[in-house]
Amino acid sequence: MNNTVLNIISSIFCNAAEYLLIAARVIMLRKVIKTRSVSGLSLKTNLLYLITYCLRYLHLRHWFRYSWRIIYANIIKSIFIGYQTVMVFFIFYKYNKTYNKRYDNFPITVLLAVGGIVGLLVTRASFWSYYEELCYNISLVLESVAILPQLVMTQETEDCESMTGHYIITLGLYRACYLIHFVILRMQRRGIDMFMIITALVQTGLYIDFFYVYYSYVFTNKESGINIERKVKEEKNKNEFGFGEMQGLNSMNYTKRV
């Protein structure tokens, strides 16, 4: 397969990943607005994503310097930043009464410190580009572990009401498309930074764990619901049988008296 075809396929999967991520964000935002609840959502995870995007997209200040393709990419990046800003606002202020702050207790400062230290260790850029390269590397670390507070919170509270199956599936497809994109880049033997691959694998591993926790919760609740429904039916049948039996006994007693 020649490089031209691989480039086209790689672009398709890269764009698909971006659109799937946007779709997942829209699904979540719509659910929060519709239910007026952020129950089960982690403020710290959303803060980490907001910090990640702000660090990574520092070049957005050069909005109109480049081609229309760059402007399009900047619009997509602005959507990510805007979404995270809105979600932080919803959790921290607008729907704060439904926010489970007690269980959102993962030490976010540890993740920020680790991100900063790792970023300093792996950054090897020249003086003029060092700052942006450092911020980019820190953002890679933070993005790879940003789901951790949400994962821990979900495990502790077993509250997945704010997350729909569509949201989880869309996130899974987003990660799958990005992995395929990376594989194609490796097939083309392009210079992909090993650090980027490691952070992507860490993020994928945490996402898999998160999906497992979510679907375990869903299937457990579904099974519990089926069992409860079965018990209700059994109790109803017992009551009906008991009522019929009592009626029969009463009629027999009445006959004897007569």
From TrEMBL:
- Alphabetic keyword roster: Endoplasmic reticulum, ER-Golgi transport, Membrane, Protein transport, Receptor, Transmembrane, Transmembrane helix, Transport
Q: Which GO-annotated molecular functions does the record name? A: ER retention sequence binding
A Pfam family annotated for this chain is: ER_lumen_recept
> What is one Gene Ontology biological process annotated in the Swiss-Prot or TrEMBL record?
vesicle-mediated transport
**Top-level division of the source organism's lineage:** Eukaryota
Where is this gene product found?
Endoplasmic reticulum membrane
Annotated PROSITE patterns: ER_LUMEN_RECEPTOR_2 (PS00952)
Record's family? Belongs to the ERD2 family.
Q: Sorted alphabetically, which PANTHER family does this protein's record hold?
A: ER LUMEN PROTEIN RETAINING RECEPTOR
This protein is called what? ER lumen protein-retaining receptor
Q: Which organism is it from?
A: Ecytonucleospora hepatopenaei
Upper lineage is: Eukaryota, Fungi, Fungi incertae sedis, Microsporidia, Enterocytozoonidae
Name of encoding gene: KdelR
